[in-house]
Design brief:
The complex is a heterodimer of chains A (187) and B (202).
Chain A lengths: L3 H10 L7 H11 L2 E6 L6 H9 L4 E4 L3 H13 L3 E7 L10 H7 L3 E6 L12 H13 L3 E5 L2 H18 L2 E6 L1 H4 L7
Parallel strand pairs in A: 1-2, 1-3, 3-4, 4-6, 5-6
Helix pairs in contact in A: 2-3, 2-7
Chain B lengths: L14 H9 L6 E4 L3 H8 L6 E3 L7 H11 L5 E6 H6 L1 H10 L4 E7 L2 E2 L5 E2 L8 H8 L3 E5 L2 H13 L4 E6 L14 H13 L5
Parallel strand pairs in B: 1-2, 1-3, 3-4, 4-8, 7-8
Antiparallel strand pairs in B: 5-6
Helix pairs in contact in B: 1-2, 1-7
The chains are: A alpha/beta (187), B alpha/beta (202).
């Protein structure tokens, strides 16, 4: 039977596939000792959500609305645990007032946002929020990073984690719709 | 402020007395307070480093409690909030019920009013039943509290019961003198983390 250490060593022997960015995010979340993962699902986050649910070191909490996650992770940090919040860009607007919690209490927050409404979008209802996601976050005091290529994702999330937890700031990583691929509407 | 009475002329509970009973002999109980009167009530019962006071983030109190309860499964966590605040976070009751933290209690001091903004009637004044909503969501313990004996029973349940618990405590809609704890969120956070995690909380 493998010990955890041996399993990690075996996994480390296989070079990570840069195209498999969800596995890359999961790896850096593990390395940063993230214990709580809150999410409102998005198709682009499917694989990462499954990886987090399957990881006994992480508690994955499904939310009814994204702002719940901002408050949940504030509580997690008060209790000594690190967390991340996964959402689609349409959920960013739901968070705005709750982000005052992070700002007022200087709490760390990491949001991983899959983008809609910015690249070959089929659904016009996604465009208003998608086009204002980054500006909204910045107005609310959240530092934003973008990842446009799969190869950049793990490194960008890793930097966001260190930045947020070491400097107690709110950081969002926007995962571009071009990288995620256009949603297929006719199956 | 005169003598703290347990019940008012309308036979509704006095919120300051309720909180005093809930937080007496608190030992390692951790407390999250909802903005407005519940924050003042908890400060009036005695400032404590294990209190995390919200002055905003309306609707977020119960979720802060959930994150804390999941991070500290061996500690008891109580969120003391108001009906208006909890009504803004109804979805949180579903999220909490799905996670089932057995160390979390939500106590709603329900005066059926938006007390901070001019005492407008909330939904609970129109018959909305927060305990019923919590029960339907899946809370194993959801109760309405009206009497003094029930408050003492609630204090025991908060410390020992198998949660998640939601108690809707019907309190008098009096506008009581404000007792203001620190509004410096970063200070309250750091103080709370040092209390829970030991110093220095890195």
């Amino acid at each position: 039977m493998h010990t955890v250490q041996q399993t990690d060593r075996a996994a480390a022997a296989i070079p990570p596939d840069p195209a498999d960015w969800p596995a890359g995010i999961h790896r850096v979340l593990r390395e940063a000792q993230v214990r709580q993962v809150a999410y409102v699902p998005d198709a682009g986050h499917t694989k990462l959500i499954n990886l987090c649910h399957d990881d006994p070191a992480m508690r994955a909490t499904v939310l009814t609305t994204e702002e719940e996650g901002v408050a949940l992770l504030a509580g997690a940090w008060l209790g000594g645990q690190r967390g991340v919040l996964l959402m689609q860009s349409s959920g960013v607007g739901n968070c705005i007032n709750m982000l005052s919690l992070s700002k007022s209490c200087r709490l760390p927050l990491v949001m991983l946002v899959t983008m809609r409404g910015e690249w070959g979008e089929f659904n016009p209802w996604q465009v208003p929020m998608g086009q204002t996601t980054q500006a909204s976050l910045e107005l609310a005091g959240v530092i934003t990073y973008r990842a446009d290529e799969a190869e950049q994702v793990a490194e960008t999330v890793e930097a966001a984690l260190h930045f947020a937890f070491d400097s107690e700031v709110a950081v969002a990583v926007l995962l571009s719709q071009r990288m995620l691929g256009r949603k297929k509407w006719v199956k | 402020m005169g003598q703290v009475t347990m019940q008012t002329e309308r036979n509704l509970l006095d919120r300051r007395w309720v909180v005093k009973v809930l937080l007496s002999d608190r030992r390692d109980l951790l407390v999250v307070t909802g903005l407005g009167a519940p924050t003042y009530d908890c400060a009036a019962a005695g400032d404590h480093p294990g209190n995390f006071y919200l002055w905003g983030a309306m609707g977020g109190g119960a979720m802060v409690g959930l994150g804390l309860a999941l991070a500290q499964p061996d500690r008891r966590v109580v969120v003391i909030t108001g009906d208006g605040e909890q009504l803004m976070g109804l979805g949180a009751l579903a999220t909490i019920a799905a996670q089932r933290p057995d160390n979390l209690a939500i106590v709603v001091l329900d005066n059926e009013r938006y007390g901070e903004t001019g005492m407008q009637r909330t939904h609970t004044a129109h018959g909305v039943d927060l305990a019923g909503i919590a029960r339907a969501a899946g809370f194993p313990d959801a109760r309405i509290v009206r009497g003094e004996d029930e408050v003492h029973a609630l204090a025991t349940a908060v410390r020992q019961g198998r949660g998640p618990l939601l108690a809707d405590v019907k309190v008098s809609p009096e506008d009581l003198p404000r007792v203001l704890p620190s509004r410096d969120g970063a200070y309250i956070k750091t103080r709370f983390r040092e209390h829970v995690l030991g110093q220095p909380a890195a």
